[in-house]
Amino acid sequence: MALRTILNNDEGALSKRSREVVNFDTRLHILLDDMRETLNSAGGVGLAAPQVGVLRRAAIIELTEGELIEIINPELISAEGSQNASEGCLSFPGIYGMVERAVNVEVKAFDRYGKEIKIIGNELLARALCHEIDHLNGVVFTEHVTEYVDREEAEADRKRQGYRR
Ligand code: CO
User: Which residues does the annotation mark as catalytic?
Assistant: First the structure.
């Protein structure tokens, strides 16, 4: 495994729509393994392939250490309710803001071997799924921020949301 460089949103690097993954091969597996190492090293909870400069529809989420979710070609098939809480992104270091997201979502995706999976996400996982799928569509969280908050406010809010990392 190798660490990859996480892009900041300079010059709109994260504004492009990523393409579908077609080959569920070693190249994809290396990408996903590298993304996991990069995510863990950076101390985040989610990372999308375009954040490491690969414009493919793949993302990972690890809300609890050791419980990795990999989503390839994810599609949001339902979204209900709303929650307003603070959010951040590894591509925007030190920036936090309040973002309204669905509370309950269902996502259809594929695993790294090309097998179809369905993920039901509530609260924090719903937020993370929406955030990562946005990245694959070239949308960054700052486009949804209603109010920016400082680091202390964001950390207090993260605890309230149940982040364990
Ligand atoms: Co992000």
Answer: 132
